[in-house]
Amino acid sequence: MSEVGETAAKALLRRLAVEQAESRVPSLTAAIVRDGEVAWFGGRGQVGDGEPTLDTQYRLGSITKSMVATVVMRLRDEGLVDLLDPLGKHVEGTAFDQVTVAQLLSHTGGLTAEPPTPWWERTPGLPVDELIARLGPDTSRHRPGRRFHYSNVGYGLLGELVARHRGMSWVEAVRREVLEPLGMNDTTPRPRAPHATGYAVHPFADVLLPEPEHDAVSMAPAGQLWSTPADLARWAAFLTGSTRGVLRPETLAEMREPATVDDGDAWTSGYGLGLQLARAGGRRLAGHTGSMPGFLATVWTDPADKVGVLFMANTTSGVSRTLLVELLAILDEHEPRLPEPWKPVAADPDLLALTGLWHWGPAPYLLRLLPDRGLSLTPATGQGRASRFVPQDDGTWLGLDGYYAGEVLRVGEGFLDLNTFIFTREPYDPRAPIPGGPGEWSA
User: Fold this and answer.
1) Yes or no: is domain 1-343 CATH 3.40.710.10?
2) Which parts of 158-303 are beta strand (E)?
3) Closest Cα partner for 140 from 82, 98, 93?
4) Could you give the CA distance from residue 90 to residue 88 in angstroms, rounded to a whole number?
5) Contact criterion met (CB below 8 Å) for 166 and 77
6) Considering the chain, what is the average pLDDT of its residues?
7) Which helix (H) or strand (E) holds 323?
8) How large a percentage of the chain has pLDDT more than 90?
9) pLDDT, tens digit (0-9, with 9 covering 90-100), for 131-180
C-alpha cells in the first residue's frame, strides 16, 4: 500500500468518523487510490464483531452499470455492435426498437426510469422475456435523444444484449471480461462472507430495520453486484487508466466524454457512456454512484491526476454527497501532487520548422510541437478554436479535441489545410490557395 503520511491519514479518518457518527451510518468505509494503488483506507462502525475492512462486501448498486457498459464497449471494439445500432438489431421485440445502443448507455433513449413491475429493488425479479413483454409503448417517456432521463430499464436491456452476443449470462461475461482481468475476485452477484447487512436507519430514533436482498434477474444489470473496498479500488485504478487490456485507453476515454450534461450556465454533472461525470474542486471526475435497499456506494476518479476515491456503506440513505470531494480536498491540502519535472525531448527538424505563428485569415494562431510528434494549434489571443492533433501514418494529423476533433490537418507548401480552412504565415498570404481572394490591404 502506497500510504499517505500520518497527518493526512488522521485528517482523512476524522472526516470519515464525523460522517459515520453524524449521518448515523451502521458502517462506513472509504479509500483513496493513487497511481493504481490504495494510498489510504478507513473503516468506521461495525460489521459482525468488528470494524469493516478492505475485504468486507457491500452492494455496489448502479456502479454495476459501468461494468456492463464496459462489456458493451468491448463488443463495439470487436465490431459486433455499433453504438448507432438500434436496440432491435440485437434485442428484438421491444416497443422501442429504434432507440440506439449509445442512447441506452448514456440514458438519453427516453425510456422510463423503472420497470412496470412492483418496486423492483425490493421484490424478486422477472425473467427477461416477461420483462420485455411488459414494456409497452408507454415505456417511453421522452423522444430519444431529447434529454437525459436515467433509466434502470435501459441497462436491464443492455445486459440482455451482452448475454445474447456472448452466449452466457451478463454476469458471467462481466466476470470473465472485466472482473477477473482486473483482479476483482471478491465482486459477486450475491453476498459472500464477510459482508455487511443492509439497513434502513429510523429517521427519528437510533434503531435499524434490515432491508431485503434478492436476485433482480432481468433487472440485475442495473444494480446487482456486491463488492469490497479492495475490489472497488481496483475498479478505480482501471478508470484512472490501469486498463490491463480490458479496454483500449482510447475507448475508456470515449466512455468519459460527456454525452449529456446538466442544464446550467456551466455544467457540474453529466453522463458519458456508462459513467457519471462531475466537475468539483477543480477536478473533472468520472465514476458512478450506487444505491440499493440498505446500501450506498460511490466511486470517483480523476484520470488527469491518476487519483480515485470511494466509499461503501450499509444504509439506505444519509451519506453526504460531498464526502468524497472533501476527502480529495484533504489529500490535496496535506499531500499535493508535485508536477512531473520538465525534460527536453528530441524534435524532428521539419516539424520544428512548422512551429510558431500562423494566421486563419487575419486571426493569429500559435502552432506548438508536442511530445510524440503531436501538434497544438491555439489562438494567440487565448480566445477561439483550439485543438491538439496526433500524427497519422499517411503524413496527416488528426484532431484530438476541441472544434477540430476528428478533422484532418495537412501540411502544404507554406500553408496548413485544416479541413479546407487555410492557415498561412502572413494574413491571407497570396501565395497560398485561399478561395475568393485575397485583394489588397488598404486604409
Assistant:
1) yes
2) 199-201, 208-210, 226-227, 260-261, 269-271, 276-280, 283-292, 295-302
3) 98
4) 5
5) no
6) 95
7) helix 323-334
8) 88
9) 999 998 888 899 999 999 999 999 999 999 999 999 999 999 999 999 99
b (16+ CB within 10 A) / e for 369-384: beeeeebbbbeeeeee
CA distance 67 to 106: 14
Q: Where are the beta strands (DSSP E) in 252-384?
A: 260-261, 269-271, 276-280, 283-292, 295-302, 307-313, 356-360, 363-369, 375-379
Question: How far does Cα 12 stand from its chain's mean position?
Answer: 25
Cis peptide before 341, with omega less than 30 degrees from 0?
A: no
Q: At which residue does the C-alpha cell 476515454 appear?
A: 253
CA 400 to centroid of chain Cα atoms:
19
Q: Where residue 1 falls among pLDDT bands split at 50, 70, 90? A: very low
The answer to whether residue 271 scores a pLDDT higher than 60 is yes
Backbone angles phi, psi at 356, to 5 degrees: 110, -150
The pairing of beta strand 37-45 with beta strand 276-280:
unpaired
Domain with CATH 3.40.710.10 in the chain: 1-343
Cell numbers given for 288: 458512478
Coil, strand, or helix at residue 114?
coil
Q: What is the mean pLDDT of residues 7-35?
A: 98
Average pLDDT over residues 413-421: 94
- 268 CB-near residues (< 8 Å, 6+ apart): 262, 278, 279, 280
- For residue 189, whether the previous peptide bond is cis, meaning omega lies within 30 degrees of 0, is no
Average pLDDT over residues 23-29: 98
Helices 229-239 and 63-77, packing angle to 10 deg: 40
CA dist., res. 78 & res. 238, Å (int): 20
Q: What single letter denotes the amino acid at residue 347?
A: A
With residue 251 as reference, give the H or E element that holds it: helix 249-256
The model's pTM is 0.92
pLDDT digits (tens, 9 = 90+) for 341-355: 999 988 899 999 999
SS3 (DSSP) at 325: helix
pLDDT over threshold 90, residue 235: yes
Cα separations (Å) of 347 from 344, 369, 375, 378, 409?
9, 8, 12, 20, 19
Residue 139: strand, helix, or coil: helix
Residues written for the chain: 443
Taking each helix axis as running N to C, give the angle between helix 63-77 and helix 249-256, from 0 to 180 degrees, rounded to the nearest 10: 130
Sign of the Cα pseudo-torsion (126, 275, 182, 187, in order): negative
